[in-house]
Amino acid sequence: QLYCHRLQHDMYFLTSTSRLNEQVVDKIVLQLNRVYPQILTNEEAEKFRNPKASLHTRLSDLLKHLQKKGDRHCQEFYRALQINDEQLFNDLPSRKILKTPDPTEIDTDKEQYMLNDRGPVFFLACFSVAAGLALFWYCCNSETQVIGRARRILGFSPIIIGRHVRNICMLYLEDMSRN
Q1: Exposed/middle/buried for 86, CB within 10 Å: 0-12, 13-18, 19+?
Q2: Comparing 110 with 73, which gets the higher pLDDT?
Q3: 115 vs 147: CA distance, rounded Å
Q4: Main-chain dihedrals φ then ψ at residue 105, nearest 5 degrees
Q5: ∠148-178-142 over CA atoms, to 5°?
Q6: Domain tally for the chain?
Q7: Domain-located, residue 105
Q8: How far apart are CA 35 and CA 80, in angstroms?
Q9: Whose CA is closest to 85, among 27, 8, 3, 16?
Q10: CB-CB neighbours of 173 under 10 Å
Q11: What is the pLDDT of residue 78?
C-alpha cells in the first residue's frame, strides 16, 4: 500500500478525539520540520503548531497537506508517529490490515486464547480422567500380571498421591486378583 492511501485510510482514526494529544502532535511537527529530509518548512511548522487553532483542525490540515506533498512525506509522518507514539502507531487500522493480509487466515493470538481459556483445573481434571482410564485399562487386561506391576507402579505413589489412597488402590487390586 502506498503511504498516501494508508494515511487517507487512517485519517479518521487519527483525528478522532483523544487519539493524539497536543504534545505528540507538536513533537511530530517538529520532527518533520527539523529532521533530514525536511518535510515541513518553518512557516508550515508554525501553522501546524499554532495553539490558537483546535488540535483537530491542525491535525486534519497537517494530514491533508502531507497527502498533497506525496508518498515520501506521508512515509516520514508514519516514521515520526512511530517514534513518538508507538502504541498508537501499532493500533492504526492500516497496520492491522498489513498484519493480516488474508482474511481467511486464522488469527493465532485469538486462537491461542481460545485454546487456553479453560485454566489449570480443567487440565488437571482431564489428565486425571485420562490417567484413571489408562490405569483401569492396564489393570483389566487379562494378559498381564496386574498385581506385580501395579505394586511397582503404586509403590512410588506416596510422592504423587496420599498413603491412604495408595492403600485403597492396593486393596482393590488384591480384591480383583482373588476374583
Answers
A1: exposed
A2: 73
A3: 39
A4: -70, 145
A5: 60
A6: 1
A7: no
A8: 10
A9: 27
A10: 17
A11: 94
Domain CATH number, residue 44: 1.10.533.10
Total number of residues shown for the chain:
179
The pLDDT score that the predictor gives to residue 83 is: 93
> Which residue in this structure is represented by grid cell 501499532?
90
Position 70 in a domain: yes
- Please list the alpha-helical segments (H only) found in 35-162: 42-48, 55-69, 71-84, 86-91, 93-99, 108-116, 120-140, 146-155, 157-160
- For 104, the 3-state DSSP assignment is coil
Specify whether the CB–CB gap between 8 and 68 falls below 8 A: no
Q: Which residue segment(s) compose the domain that 67 sits in? A: 3-97
Share of the chain above pLDDT 70, in %: 70
Q: CA 116 to CA 138: how far, in whole Å?
A: 30
- Cell, residue 46: 508554525
Q: How far apart (Å, rounded) are the C-alpha atoms in residues 13 and 24? A: 15
52 in a structural domain: yes
pLDDT for residue 59 is more than 70: yes
Q: Is residue 34 part of a domain?
A: yes
For residue 173, which amino acid is it? L
Give CA 16 to chain center in angstroms: 24
* Per-residue pLDDT at 178: 78
Cell numbers representing residue 122 in the block: 480443567
Question: What's the grid cell of residue 4?
Answer: 498516501
Q: Is the pTM of this model over 0.70?
A: no
